[in-house]
Design a protein that fits this description.
The structure holds two protein chains of two kinds. Chain A is built from four helices and seven strands; from the N terminus they run E-E-E-H-E-E-H-E-H-E-H. In chain A, helix 1 (25-40) packs parallel to helix 2 (58-73). By secondary structure, chain A is of the alpha/beta class. Chain B is α/β, with parallel strands linked by helices. Chain B is built from 25 helices and 22 strands. In chain B, helix 14 (313-321) packs across helix 17 (368-381). In chain B, 41% of the residues are buried. The chains are: A alpha/beta, B alpha/beta.
Chain lengths: 122, 751
């Protein structure tokens, strides 16, 4: 996560989570916990933005796979955005790109989501 | 921060390779169920057993509350009463030190009377009674009572405090020297009983004569050897850095091998280099420093002192020179010695762990350094040779050993040289003679003026009737994108190694232009014969099946050249053939691959960087940072730099995960060559099981497996990934080539 930036923001019915600079076991789990918390509150559209992420390691990748499973279990949808080339290569190598949509930027991903609602969080 | 030192130990930065042993001993000591047996560390002198025991004590002192650690080092030439007093004082001081969490108490200088008063002042009446009994026994000159009182003290301390005492007895075999009665009985028997009361650790210098009473007991005996070559080289490198001594990694490796990983020897050599202002940068430096240290320098002084009990130099050297065990009778007969005289020498050597007795025979088990020292004193003292003559012989021996090792390395480099040449092909055109050995050899023979291969003979030279003009025509080489060893694709095959290079012709990166070069490498002085040719052609034809869609080119490269018959057969079968001298010319003909910088004198030389990672949070990012700096400097593009960093992070995580010991360090060596970056990642691990590094876990809902992606990522991000077993650890080797990338651009379809 870039310095000074919040770790998430809610835009209508879309929850945008901002990933940290290095996604390892600890940061991966933080991301997963945050995602899980929003899913419990009923979020159905989640965007994870990796524009502040320099590196995702294999443990981080494993956690992202688990996160995608959880999103699916809740009948929700998750997009990734802002991946640096190497991080895209990494999630592509493990096959994640075949299961979720990846966008160059947060704006592109948001356009793809449906019209935003405003009643996600009370 | 509180000072953690209790007894003297060397700086942590100079202590290597024993962490797992220390962890095991600490775990054994602090096991609440006391399931572990006592531990006896058996080791040659100066291998660091005292250091290990003191660190076990320190660890137990600061990190456990289940046992009271008591460290005691047996001393030479003391009477039973002196020993008893010293021992009681140590137990009391260390008990107080542990219970008060005050390390300074452990090294308090106090008389027995002073300690008695201290205990009385602090209402430690039970303990004060022990000191009082000792003082009474001393006044009555009753050694036996003094020893019994001392030996029973740890068990009583445990009873009084409710906490077990963990005895750490250094140089336990010296206890044999301490007699307490007119029959010369030693104190070890008393101690055996005391040790049977609870867990303990002890060190001895000899495995052949275990302390009496312990041999048949519940004891785990561990042989403490010198450091592994990897740890030893690392330790020497650290010491060189600390003392400002220049070094070459290969020379340190050679020194570590010669010194058998003995920390005392290694420190002495580096200290000698520091004192003389020399570096360990070449074989000659190493040989000079080693011979001086072993013959007249610091190592020699230590060995002289240790061997002073050896009365017969001839017997000593006979044991060293004997290729196998010798009988005592043979030694007595050869040197006309009686049993007593022979025993005096043999017992002295056995007590130093230099000899091993077995069924009436004697075998040398000392180290190489001691052998060299004995050779020096024997040759100068008995044979009457001059010191300079013997030193010269020793220097030559080291130089010879070094050259043999260097040549071995050179031999292993042929395949590397070849791989480098393949990576430099880059679609260039080279003279055909460099790939056709028969024609190349005929050209050399016919051209006594030495026209260079690649430069057709001058017009005044008549063309040779058997020389096919096609051989001189240029050959356009492909752009190679990857190169690996065929060993993984072959089963139960013998013969020359085969490398597989994959690439594209005419700089067209499409499936129609794909090409595979199968390259047989014979890395020996003997020329390739018909048997080698048939072996290669047969194996290549099997391997070809794996590349049905690609064009396949076969090539044999040999250090020792080709027999005429073999070269002709290869020509007939359309197989390229290149000897070492052709390969050298080929490499000179090839321009460096795109992105490689040149200097006025040619390609930039290899640069090496070393980084040692401690086992700490996110240590792998330090490695990634270093890789980023080095690869940027080398000219890699941003994408490749990202890939190198990500792969290295995986390698480091694996190195830490698979290490024997969580506190181990991971050692990184970056070799920046003209055409590639190679990163060696090594640990002191139990070895990597590649099956564990493959994706595992459930595969639910079509999603990828969850775990074990490290290996896949490394392979996907780097050009080459391989695992190498090392003595005492494992090494992952990551290679990234500086190759011009396809111009089609990024093919991220989904984005």
């Amino acid at each position: 996560m870039k310095e000074g930036r919040d770790s998430f923001r809610v835009l209508g019915d879309v929850v945008i989570l901002y990933a940290e600079n290095y996604i390892n076991d600890i940061e991966g789990e933080k991301l997963e916990d945050m995602c899980e918390a929003f899913l419990k509150k009923g979020a159905k559209k989640i965007l994870i933005d990796f524009s502040g992420t320099d590196l995702i390691n294999s443990i981080g990748v494993s956690i992202l796979i688990g996160l995608i499973e959880k999103v699916r279990d809740c009948k929700a949808v998750v997009f990734f955005s802002g991946l640096k080339k190497v991080n895209y290569d990494i999630i592509d190598l493990v096959g994640i790109t075949r299961h979720i949509q990846v966008f160059n930027s947060e704006d592109e991903a948001l356009k793809e989501f449906e019209e935003p609602g405003s009643d996600l969080l009370v | 921060m509180k000072d953690r030192s209790i007894f003297n130990t060397c700086p942590d930065s100079e202590f290597f390779g024993r962490s797992s042993l220390i962890d095991h001993m600490v775990a054994s000591a602090s096991d609440p169920d006391h399931r572990h047996p006592g531990i006896i560390l058996s080791a040659k002198r100066w291998t660091g057993k005292t250091e290990v025991l003191r660190r076990v004590h320190r660890e137990l002192f600061w990190t456990n509350s289940r046992v009271i650690p008591v460290y005691y080092q047996f001393k030479d030439s003391v009477s039973a009463e002196e020993f008893a007093e010293d021992y009681i004082k140590e137990v009391v001081k260390q008990y107080l030190s542990f219970t008060r969490r005050d390390p300074s108490m452990a090294t308090l200088q106090a008389t027995a009377g002073g300690l008695e008063r201290l205990l009385l002042d602090n209402d430690q009446l039970d303990l004060a009674a022990f000191v009082s009994r000792h003082l009474e026994a001393r006044r009555a000159s009753d050694s036996r009572a003094a020893i019994k009182n001392a030996a029973s003290m740890p068990a009583s301390v445990a009873k009084i405090s409710g906490i077990n005492v963990y005895l750490i007895l250094d140089d336990l075999d010296k206890s044999r020297e301490i007699g307490f009665d007119s029959k010369g009985r030693g104190i070890t028997g008393e101690f055996s009983e005391a040790l049977s009361m609870g867990p303990f650790a002890a060190s001895v210098s000899s495995t052949t004569l275990p302390p009496e009473g312990l041999a048949g007991g519940y004891v785990e005996t561990m042989d403490l050897k010198g450091l592994s070559p990897g740890d030893a080289s690392q330790m020497m490198a650290e010491l060189c850095r600390a003392w400002g001594v220049g070094f070459d990694a290969e020379i340190l490796g050679l020194a570590a091998e010669r010194l058998e990983g003995n920390p005392m020897y290694m420190k002495n050599i580096i200290w000698a280099a520091h004192r003389k202002g020399e570096g360990l940068t070449g074989l000659k430096n190493l040989a000079g420093l080693y011979v001086e240290a072993v013959t007249t320098g610091s190592i020699s002084s230590v060995l002289r002192s240790a061997l002073k009990g050896v009365v017969d130099l001839r017997v000593l050297r006979a044991c060293v020179k004997s290729e196998g065990p010798v009988t005592r009778e043979r030694l007595m007969e050869r040197f006309r010695l009686n049993e007593a005289a022979l025993s005096a020498t043999l017992d002295a050597l056995a007590s130093m762990n230099l000899l091993e007795f077995d069924l009436g025979t004697v075998a040398w088990k000392g180290d190489r350094v001691t052998e060299d020292f004995i050779e020096y004193i024997y040759s100068t003292g008995v044979k009457g040779k001059s010191p300079e003559e013997v030193k010269t012989w020793l220097v030559r021996d080291i130089l010879k050993e070094g050259f043999v090792r260097t040549s071995d390395n050179l031999r292993t480099r042929l395949a590397e040289e070849l791989a480098a040449a393949l990576k430099s092909f880059d679609g260039q055109t080279v003279p055909g003679l460099l790939l056709r050995h028969g024609a190349f050899a005929r050209t050399l023979r016919s051209d006594d003026k030495g026209s260079l291969p690649g430069h057709p003979p001058q017009p005044h030279h008549p063309p040779q009737p058997h020389q096919p003009t096609q051989a001189h025509q240029g050959v356009t080489l492909p752009c190679i994108t990857g190169c690996f060893d065929a060993a993984g694709m072959e089963k139960n095959e013998t013969g020359p190694r085969i490398l597989i290079a994959h690439g594209f012709h005419n700089r067209r990166y499409d499936s129609g232009s794909e090409v595979v070069w199968l390259v047989g490498v014979k890395d020996s002085a003997a020329p390739v014969n018909m048997g080698d040719v048939e072996n290669f052609i047969r194996r290549a034809s099997i391997l070809v099946d794996g590349f049905r869609t690609a064009r396949v080119v076969k090539w044999m490269v040999a250090r020792g050249g080709f027999s005429e018959e073999a070269a002709e057969r290869l020509d007939r079968d359309g197989v390229y053939s290149t000897a070492a001298e052709q390969l050298s010319l080929l490499r000179k003909n090839l321009a460096a691959p795109t992105g490689v910088k040149k200097t006025a004198t040619g390609l930039l030389p290899d640069k090496e960087f070393e980084v040692v990672l401690p086992a700490s949070k996110k240590a792998e990012l330090v490695a990634a940072r270093a890789a980023g700096e080095i690869s940027t400097e080398m000219g890699f593009d941003e994408e490749a730099i990202g890939q190198i960093k990500a792969a290295l992070v995986e390698a480091c995580i694996n190195a830490f995960e698979h290490s024997k010991d969580r506190s181990t360090r991971v050692h990184l060596r970056f070799v920046a060559a003209a055409d590639r970056l190679t990163v060696y990642v090594s640990n002191a691990g139990i070895g990597f099981d590649e099956t564990l590094l493959k994706p595992t876990g459930r595969d639910q809902g079509g999603l990828p497996h969850k775990r074990g992606w490290g290996m896949e990522l490394m392979k996907g991000l780097m050009d080459e990934v391989r695992f190498e077993r090392l003595d005492g650890g494992t090494r992952i080797v990551l290679v990234k080539y500086l190759i011009k990338k396809p111009e089609e651009g990024d093919e991220r379809g989904a984005r």
